[in-house]
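Researcher: Next sequence.
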Amino acid sequence: MIDQYGHRMVERGYNIIPTLPSKKRPSGSGWQKIQSTPELVQDWITEMPEFGIGVLCDTTAAVDIDCHNKALNNRLLHWLKDNVGMPAARIGLNPKCVVPFRNVEGMRKMRSKEFVCGDGVTHAVEILGVGQQFIAYGIHPKTLKPYEWVAGPTLADVFHEDLPALTNDIATAFITFFEQQAEELGWVAEKEGTREKQQAHDELMNFKAALDMGAEEISEILQTLDPDADHDSWVRVGMALHHQFGGDLDGLELFETWSMDSDKFKEGECAKRWESFGDYGGAKVTMASLKFEAKKSDSVEVIEERLPSMLTNWAFVQVEGSARVLREELNSDQIILYKLDDLKKEFANQKVLDHGSDKPRMMNLADMWLEHPDRRTYAGGICFSPDGQVLNKYNLWRGWSYKPVQGDVSPFIEFVTNVIAGGDEGHARYILGWVAQMIQKPQSKVGVGITLRGKKGSGKSFFGELIGGLCKPHHRIVSKADHVTGKFNRHLEDTLLLQCDEAYWARNKAAEGALKDLMTNNRITVERKGMDSYSSNNYTRLLFTSNEQWVVPASLDERRFAVFDVSPCQMQNAKYFGDLRRWYDRGGAEHLLHFFKSFDLGSVDVRVAPTTAALDQQKLLSLDTIDQWVLDCISSGEFREQRSNGDVFEFGSPEAKHSIYQCYVSSVKGRFESARKESQFWRHLREIDGLIAKESRKRVAGRQLYCVEFAHPKIALQAFLSHHNIKNNEVVEAVEDLDPLDPANWNDEVPF
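Model: Next structure:
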């Protein structure tokens, strides 16, 4: 983690420290006094590259929402967004999260009361200040998954100076808001000591004391309760009012006023039962119990707060004939799909008072949204359409991340030309055109993926980050083949640029087929957990970045991969890439988007991948077992059986056909493919014009043998490369496990 984000964090003004892998604590002592520098970060990268990154809270405060209730968490995040601003939020153990801000007043630790809900879970919020730290990047010790930035860009994408300021007054107001929300949910505030905690719990649950509240507040509680409920519930309300008012007639008046809203109301019934409530010898029912029940359901205030958000962020959709509820995640471009029954179950305990009908009624919050006339409905289902041309469908397209502005893009052009394209201006032109086609015509695929090979730190992944940032909601990075070929692929539904970072495709036939389908097909079958699959548009472009020699499965007539070797000229140059990042973040992204939108697509044919030595190497590495064996034999100048006697035959001498075939069979052992049949083997070799010099019959020890003599290695190599349309002889030297060809050992009299 620290090797990936360390330098960027320091460049953006954060004071960072290394944290132990899969732990929440810093590495070593004295971390509170550390002042991180590029030089210090480089030392950490060298010594502990797998360590996480903690951010010191000396100039960077953080709101730590240690709350397990997702609904309340969303309200807290909305409060921060409305009152302070919120560029980013980090999740470890969902739904708990941390939101960073600037610490402008030297703020120290602040913490709310701890509240215990009905499930016995403790909830609190905390302001992290001077002397503390929070994990920005690392592995969570419980989930064993990376911490995730969900509400916007990652922290490494935000300059410290651009973080909203958190003051003591704002922090205090936030804590107060949380405590009010917790109390309204009926949670119990913990006190010091086990005995006092139990007493607090007993006071709420045993209902022995009248609450300190006025008639107006009591009336508001009664408005959330349904007078048409069952008889026992009606009696409980009367008993609670009797207890609160000590049997006074003011309580009876409230009881009658509330009961009159019921169709079952009978004149004099409330007064008849009133006196009997005082004679009840069981557990007392008080206003505390009614308040608890009312706050378990959402109040009128919550309706006013939540319903507009639901109308904005929820939608009713028809997906392949099935009714679904679509919910847009808070401050995220992601969506969640619910079955109607599952949604109603989730909100079964959240009944609210509906004022929209002639007579107020209690409703499930989900039902209220479903019946609301302003509910969004998309009968046509879900689609991904970058051109915006949709009819009655929910469009997943979120647009570009920036507005195009004309300006200087020379830093990026230089980077692509000299680093990504290795100094080849023609290749650079193709790469720029490929990106420009994605920007100008996102709905029109070219069927060619770009592959960048290079050493770690050379800039290949950084290239993907820069162009992906132009369409950030639709840029995905995967590191495993099963992220593309696995069963559940919702993340691909709205992907415009898929960056396969160190994902290994070679020798994976299943992955190869799925990969090529994703590159060329215009439709994709989307599968979500717990839901039927459905079809969607596929506009995905693929960018492969890898340190490996063999990256993609390139066929001999390959047209789908444009492969480039990235130059190491700026490898590990933190200043070079830091300057490029600052240019990008400070207006360069807007300039770059304008450049690509204005790029002349007629100047380059992006549908035809350029022929490169790197592509030829991929072809050689992707050869089938027969071709791999032939190339191995040409390179070594001999056939060798994998047997105990280790029989060796010279490449240029006649040898029995069956012995040659057995050499091939023994070479295939242990590979991912099985050996081909002998008839297929010889038919394949004869198709390579010039490989076989002579076929003859010889009598050996009284037996008639069919013998084959291959051409001289120089001629054989030329025939092999010509047959496979590989023009660069140097690529052979890059094939793993093959001895480099040494022309000095060959007979100069044989023409090449």
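Model: Residues 207-296 form one domain. The CA atoms of residues 54 and 134 lie 5 Å apart.
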